[in-house]
Amino acid sequence: MSNNGQKDILKVAMPKGRIYKQASKLFREAGLPIPSDFDDTRKLIIELPDMNMEFIMAKPVDVPTYVEYGVADIGIVGKDVLMEENKDVYELLDLGIAKCRMSVIGMPDWKPTIHPRVATKYPNVASAYFREQGQQVEVIKLNGSIELAPLIGLADRIVDMVETGQTLRENGLVEQASIFEITSRLIANRVSYRMKNERIQNLCDMLQATIAAGAH
Ligand code: PRP
Questions:
Q1: Residue 80 in contact with ligand 1 by CB distance below 6 A
Q2: CA–CA gap between residue 143 and residue 120 (Å, rounded)
Q3: CB 171 less than 6 A from any atom of ligand 1
Q4: Confidence class of residue 90 from pLDDT cuts 50, 70 and 90?
Q5: Does domain 100-181 have CATH number 3.40.190.10?
Q6: Mutation test of ligand 1: which of 163, 168, 175, 182 has the most ligand atoms closer than 8 Å to its C-beta?
Q7: Ligand 1, atom 2: nearest CA belongs to which residue?
């Protein structure tokens, strides 16, 4: 491929795991022939020469970082990560996939305590929420299995994603408040959005039409 061709490759930061399957399905429905053999791949860079595209398979939380630094032109990321990471990127489109919500969760018999502690993977989101509520809490950062925290006495509440509610039910926890709804978003690097505007805008329009048609 010529240098010119290389320059025109659209680099897309894709979240590995459960969002990828929904995102690649949406791309396919929008007319982009993404082979389904990549749904379970361990490959980190997927070349799609027919579309002059490349997928960078990223840990979801890192997608905005790749896009902010411009090593990916665009990316797909959950609103939860966007709110927490607060990176300098354009949010172009709500893809309407991977729907869930960010919630405050506790034991059914939760009562306010003098030194409340909240465990979460989202310390910025949690701190901002409790500040707005006028509640002073100590926020403890964890990296997964957040629901353990109230069960073993690390924190009296958690801030976490709820999708089906199964994790809460199986661990005897209840939702106290919903903070915001989450879906995946299409984001773009600010420079790429100017330099590759037509390609990015075309892709955006195709996805938007598919979402509007309710096909996904
Ligand atoms: C996420 C989230 C909840 C769970 C919610 O965890 O943190 O624990 O999914 O889904 P549900 O309402 O359908 O049960 P994830 O599976 O990403 O793993 P983690 O606990 O290691 O973060």
A1: no
A2: 8
A3: no
A4: very high
A5: yes
A6: 163
A7: 161
| Residue 137 CA, ligand 1 centroid: distance in Å | 23
pLDDT of residue 93: 98
Span from the CA of 162 to the centroid of ligand 1 (angstroms) = 7
Share of the chain above pLDDT 90, in %: 90
| Nearest in space to 92 (alpha carbons), one of 84, 100, 101, 82 | 82
Report which of 157, 49, 142, 61 is spatially closest to residue 104, judged by C-alpha positions: 157
Q: For residue 201, how far is its CA from the centre of ligand 1 (angstroms)?
A: 33
Atom 1 (ligand 1): residue with closest C-alpha? 161
Record the pTM: 0.93
**Atom of ligand 1 minimally distant from the CA of 170:** 14
| Ligand 1 centroid – CA 95 distance (Å) | 20
Of the candidate ranges 7-21, 76-90, 117-131, the one whose mean pLDDT is the lowest: 7-21
Tell me whether strands 100-106 and 157-162 are parallel, antiparallel or unpaired: antiparallel
Question: What pLDDT is recorded for position 40?
Answer: 83
From CA 133, how far away is CA 148, in angstroms rounded? Answer: 24
Q: How many helices (H) and strands (E) does the chain have?
A: 9, 11
Q: Which CATH class is domain 3-98+183-213?
A: alpha beta
Residue-range domain boundaries for the chain: 3-98+183-213, 100-181
